[in-house]
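Sample intake sheet
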Amino acid sequence: MTSHSQPPAPTATPAPVSSHCVQEPSAWIARFAHLVCSQGSVLDLACGMGRHTRFFSARDHALTSVDKAPEATRSVADIAETITADIENNSWPLTGRSFDGVVVTNYLWRPLWPLILGSVKPGGVLLYETFAQGNEAYGRPSRPEFLLAPGELLQVCAGWNIVAYEHGRLAQPERVVQRIAAIRPDGAATPAALLQV
């Protein structure tokens, strides 16, 4: 696995892939959760059944969880502000809002990059992990539009402070992922290349 991270990642058993069943938080998200300021606001985008909403709620963060599946948002309605919305086909439901942390796992829709990045406050953290090219050898997703190209998250976060980045194969289950922990510096704008998307 390609990595730009120090210290080396601790050994951990990866969580199952499905985002719509209750499960442990991603080891990547748990590892870098401390970067979100104490009791800061967190957006869990495409939250599934809320594994990361629950994880950050237990750390006393204020949560906003978004998913298009009503059963997903209902599952965390007791601990988070929930928004049921089809963010790929309808208007962005968070216009004018920003968060101390934005968490996205097992989800990719490139036209949303500017909106996702714009949802991170200056000094806030983006924690992102999803499937990457090479995953087609192990199962779904296998279509290119749902797989990150090598270095794509680094390009997306150009100009941000990259705390850690990895791209490679994981086991249990076997899959290829790319993930990043990045802090938006004060005054950082969305990279111009993304505004063309």
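Comment: The radius of gyration is 16 Å. The longest helix spans residues 51-57.
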